Amino acid sequence: MTRPDESLRPALEALAARDADIARHFAACGLPPVRRHQTGFGGLLRIIMAQQVSTASAAAITARLNAAVRPLTPSGFLALDDDELRRIGLSGQKIRYGRALAEDVLARRIDLRRLHRLDDDEAIAHLTQAKGVGHWTAEIYLLFALRRPDVWPAGDLAVQVALQRLKNLDTRPDATAMRALGEAWRPHRSTAARFLWHFYRHTGIPD
Length: 207
Hints:
Endonuclease III, domain 1, 12 helices, elongated
């Protein structure tokens, strides 16, 4: 069983102190579970590979990828041929994205080691230069690999649905509305997003 992420407690308690809805549901479902991605090429590649597949499928692909390439480096990934990557579970599109990212990292067009010197917007802009890395993927990397504290994935469907339920809204907020609603939770929007994903999956929460 995944353990609760105690590192989120101070920020989540701060959010609960200012938001009664978070306070009520935090009391009901507790801390989100630990969830982290590695930094670097391997961490970003795994996020790309998990796009648009189920959690179970993503875990299976990750396990096969880890078994095939140790450590998971750009050069190691590029050494696998298409048949090997398909057996791991990658679609043709994911293979192209993975190869493009590996080549970008090797050529320093994408420099993952310098992201710590960039603010969130700059880091997202740098990452999204890579084929297959959209805004959401970059945000997830900042959230779960770099552990940035104030990233707000306004376009994430699960976060939108969870916020609609949390706030008892008539309609699901779009990305524009999400950005406006999220302003109240600065500078802890990463923790707010983590809690909303947790809330979305949680069952038996009182309305």
